[in-house]
Amino acid sequence: MREFLTLLSPQAALERWLNALSDSEPDGEDIPSIEALGRVTIAGIRAPEPMPSFPRSTVDGYAVRAADTFGASDSLPAYLRLVGEVGMGKAPDFILQPGQAALIYTGGMLPEGADAVVMLEHTQVTLPGEIEVLRAVAVGENVLKVGEDVQVGDEVIPAGVRLRPAEIGGLMGLGITKLRVAKRPRVGIISSGDEVIPPDQPLGMAQVRDINSYSIGALVDMLGGIPQRYGIVPDREEALREVLTRALSESQMVIISAGSSISTRDLTARVMDEMGPPGVLVHGINIRPGKPTILAVCNGKPVLGLSGNPVSALVVASLFLPAVLDKLSGVKLQRPRARVQARLTINLPSQAGREDYVPVRLMETQEGYLAEPIFYKSNLIFSLVRADGVLRIPADATGLGLGATAEVWLL
């Protein structure tokens, strides 16, 4: 079996791939804000109004003038005259004068003249229409000022941000019900192999159902792309060339799940290299699983060649797709990937000079997470189904011992 002559680290391979892609801005579209979860902003969004738009209380208690409470304590309370109650959703129809207080609830609008709120538990009613204040408050205490969150004209969300639930809530709070976002990149997905059949067909001898186009398609969808499946292509050069040409014309990126044999991988790389410059950039990565991975750019469009083994394909796609789909979507603010530190429950050998990614189950303890490796073969997809994440063994390690702490990338 022919060995790969040049193996790059995953980080170097990804950098080479990204550097070969242009920085062109994606096309945009206008959508309702409520549908924008996971989408990427095209332009910065500015606040059309302050938030909060009125001074409000953050607690249940009494609106007061802070100066009237100075020096108040349990042994020497301040006495204030109760002059009203602030109704929720209504502007107070009175002005607070010195020596006065008004009952107010969380979120209620501060009456004119008040500059602080005393918490309910720091007061007590003595006589009808009078309260004792048992604790002094400072100006602004238990109060949100106008524009304390954002001021009019503030850029609340920059361009190139993938929107999370917090951003959706913030947009709604400002009354921004429509916005312009990048169109989701369309990703063509091709499965190849004479032994591969669609999932809805009964298995014959020596056949396997297509897993990769569905697991990779689901990952593309989760990462903000639109998966477009192009079916199953037989292991023939002409057939692959025809489908790949069509997929490249209709998509911003293409992923090919090829067979595991050396001849099939060479066929895939050869066809990819014909599809336009610069062609194949990386053929072989110093990683397990996923050594035969192919990275190419064809006429400005990224093409990813994956092993036919489901575990290898999904692990490698999880490593490489996020950054590329972010670039195609115009993401400028990169957020860290979800990961935890965990201690190994057994010794785990590895080959020096190669990054290993091992599926693990995580068990939470009072001292932190434990990682229990799931021993697998790269064509057994349910080893990933049973896993919570993949544990990374660095290339400079010859393995990790029992109790060693390692990084686990959550699936």
TrEMBL record:
Which pathway is recorded for this entry? Cofactor biosynthesis; molybdopterin biosynthesis
Q: Which EC number(s) does the record attach to this protein?
A: 2.10.1.1
The chain positions of domain MoaB/Mog read 188-327
User: Pfam family of this protein, just one?
Assistant: MoeA_C
Q: What class of enzyme is it?
A: transferase
Per the entry, which co-factors are needed?
Mg(2+)
* Catalysed reaction, written as an equation: adenylyl-molybdopterin + molybdate = Mo-molybdopterin + AMP + H(+)
**Presence of the UniProt keyword Transferase in the record:** yes
The protein's UniProt keywords, in alphabetical order, are: Magnesium, Metal-binding, Molybdenum, Molybdenum cofactor biosynthesis, Transferase
Query: Is this entry keyworded Transferase?
Result: yes
Annotated Gene3D superfamilies: MoaB/Mog-like domain (3.40.980.10), MoeA, C-terminal, domain IV (2.40.340.10), Molybdopterin biosynthesis moea protein, domain 2 (3.90.105.10), Molybdopterin biosynthesis moea protein, domain 3 (2.170.190.11)
> PANTHER family per the record?
GEPHYRIN (PTHR10192:SF5), MOLYBDOPTERIN BIOSYNTHESIS PROTEIN (PTHR10192)
Name the job this protein performs: Catalyzes the insertion of molybdate into adenylated molybdopterin with the concomitant release of AMP.
Which family does the record assign? Belongs to the MoeA family.
Could you identify this protein by its name? Molybdopterin molybdenumtransferase
Instruction: Report the source organism.
Output: Thermanaerothrix solaris
